[in-house]
Amino acid sequence: MPNMDPKKHEMPVQEPNVRNRNFDEVALGYTYEIAVEEAQRCLNCKNKPCVEGCPVAVQIPDFIACVANEDMEGAFDILNKSTSLPAVCGRVCPQETQCEQKCVRGIKGEPVGIGRLERFVADYHREHSTEKPVQPESNGHKVAIIGAGPSGLTAAGDLAKLGYKVTIYEALHVAGGVLSYGIPEFRLPKAIVNKEVQNLIDIGVDIETNMVMGKVLTIDELFEMGNEAIFVGSGAGLPRFMNIPGESLNGVYSANEFLTRINLMKAYKPDSKTPIQHAKKTVVVGGGNVAMDAARSAMRLGSDEVYIVYRRGMEELPARKEEVEHAQEEGIVFKTLHNPVEILGDENGNVCGIRCIKMELGEPDESGRRRPIEVPGSEFEIECDSVIMSIGTSPNPLISSTTPGLDTNKRGCLITQDDSGLTTREGVYAGGDAVTGAATVILAMGAGKSAAAAIDEYIKSK
Question: Is the pTM of this model over 0.90?
Answer without folding.
Answer: yes
